[in-house]
Amino acid sequence: MKIATWNINGVKARVDSLIAWLKASNPDIACLQEIKSVDEAFPRGEIEALGYHVETHGQKGFNGVALLAKQRPDEVNRGLPGDDTDEQSRFIEGVFSVKGGAIRVCCLYLPNGNPVGTEKYAYKLQWMQRLAAFAERRLALEEPVILAGDYNVIPEPHDCWDVKVWQNDALFLPETRAAFRRLRNLGFIDAVRATSDEVPLYSFWDYQAGCWQKNFGIRIDHLMLSPEAADKLVSTSIEKHVRAWEKPSDHVPVAAEFTFEAA
DNA sequence: ATGGTCGGTAGCCGA
User: Fold this and answer.
1) Separation of CA A26 and C1' B12 in angstroms?
2) Among A4, A42, A81, A208, which residue has the least CB neighbours within 10 Å?
3) Active-site residue A83, yes or no?
4) Which is nearest to A29 in space by CA: A223, A220, A227, A204?
5) What is this structure's pTM?
């Protein structure tokens, strides 16, 4: 079973690319971020025609996440628990039956947090705190759990093209990296780093200043696995070629292959 | 030193 995450930066602008990618990459489950669409405007029919069930948690103009899956989820939960006043659509969880049990796939779009020193950075850290609390509860189930998405976190210095450029950014500040490390210390495993020691590896290249052409990228899209999910991990791939397509997203898909079989 | 590019929306904001 192949599970992928991709920040598509607007589903309306990317629907042709999304269809081309689904056909070529053929993920069993796809986690999409920044759909920038309300649920009613998501191009559901075109995706369903490819054989996917579509679950969205949309929002007008900004944010918004979606879960596409070849099998119907047994359960879907929208919104990250822990703050009933949070109106931003950044989290959706699906439960899927597999041979021998079930897996939980969470699609998350973690706040960017810039500029530092504003309520935006405080919101990012609060959101990461809520995510860690959620992750800890899911870990206690001792089931395969996959937390996939745009974390807006550069985990290590070698995950960015120039530390000097990023050292004061919300994506790389020590407090941000410590909050991400908390997930690892709970027992979650970075799927890409569990299968590759290649450096650097990037999943995002800014549209500005020719970053793609100069390979000035950062690795901020991650699949974090509970131990039970990591047990079934076979390989990962960063689908870098997608960044060279016409009208690309600034992120590329990151995928992990598992030995789970749909039930 | 500055601004550079997108998407979505509305006459700028978020990234």
Assistant:
1) 38
2) A208
3) no
4) A223
5) 0.97
